[in-house]
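Obj: model holo form, ligand = NDP.
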Amino acid sequence: TTQIRLAARPVGEPQDTDFEFVTTDLPELADGQVLLRTIYLSLDPYMRGRMSAAKSYAEPVEVGDVMVGGTVCEVMESRSPERAVGDIVLAYTGWQTYAVAGARHTRKLDPQAAPISTALGVLGMPGFTAYAGLLAIGRPQPGETVAVAAATGPVGSAVGQIAKVKGARAVGIAGRPDKCRALIEEFGFDAAVDHRSESFREELAETTPDGVDVYFENVAGPVGAAVTRRLNKFARVPVCGLVANYNATQAPEGPDQLPAYLGAILTLSLTVRGFIQSEFVPTHHDDFLRDMAGWIADGSVRYREDVVDGLDNTLETFRGLLAGRNFGKSLVRVGTD
Ligand code: NDP
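Output (holo structure tokens):
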């Protein structure tokens, strides 16, 4: 197998020298294990946190270890009665071409039911994050306005489309004109605003004439601050991600925003609630799989994937994900499907 291992903890944007490519033999299969060939590797913003030693909700990757990540794989050998050679599975084998894993740590996919890559995107962890965070915390009501940034990504695009299913108005924020066009034409948002536009704040105000009732927080930074000024009384803010800060090496310059933010929480009676999607798996995952499959089938939810070929391109693709160079769910096609 060829692996990408963490060689040093990145400071700021991850550099090539923070990683090493290693080609090594895999151990013999033990009972209950399978040999997996990676077809798709998912790249997700949370991976930046795993590269860092800072305390988080999950343990960091140790220096010298293979970078973690969700994968879709083919079973090449099996010593488990539950998996047969040729099965396609969802696994968590990380940045490598082959891996040995416990069959219990894989989920068998049905390639007839949906393209296998969707198990890492709209029908996988990011789609579930949107579903659970929006419905359990955001609770959009018909006629309300839902705003979300990183809106063409797998989480944001699902948030806006589920909001529409629930009868709300969806306003998407994205970082390029072509992404903003896709929000309206492809994903059916009611309005789109480019956060790199010089008149971003004015455009945000124009596209949210009745204020914002649910702000699904994916990014924080100046975008989050601008949307906070549009929040209505009793607005809900599911805090899902802070991608604007992930490569930051120090606190932002300028006045301390926290007093004003706490003031808004108090005077507007806001509900600001962070979450990690796994919290909602026991209560919402079955409903998610049923609802999302239905919405994809009836056309109410569309998805977009940004597939890059070759494990060699993983790191550059990951840097692009944090900088907004991806357009849709970021995937590396490690092997042929
Ligand atoms: P995306 O594919 O949407 O990629 C991240 C996007 O963030 C970029 O494409 C870019 O889009 C946008 N972005 C980057 N920097 C900034 C910035 N400074 N200001 C505004 N936008 C920025 O990622 P995902 O859909 O996979 O994830 C979205 C968020 O959800 C992330 O914060 C992630 O960490 C979080 N998440 C949280 C989970 C949880 O359990 N809490 C689970 C899964 C994801 P653009 O060009 O439009 O600016």
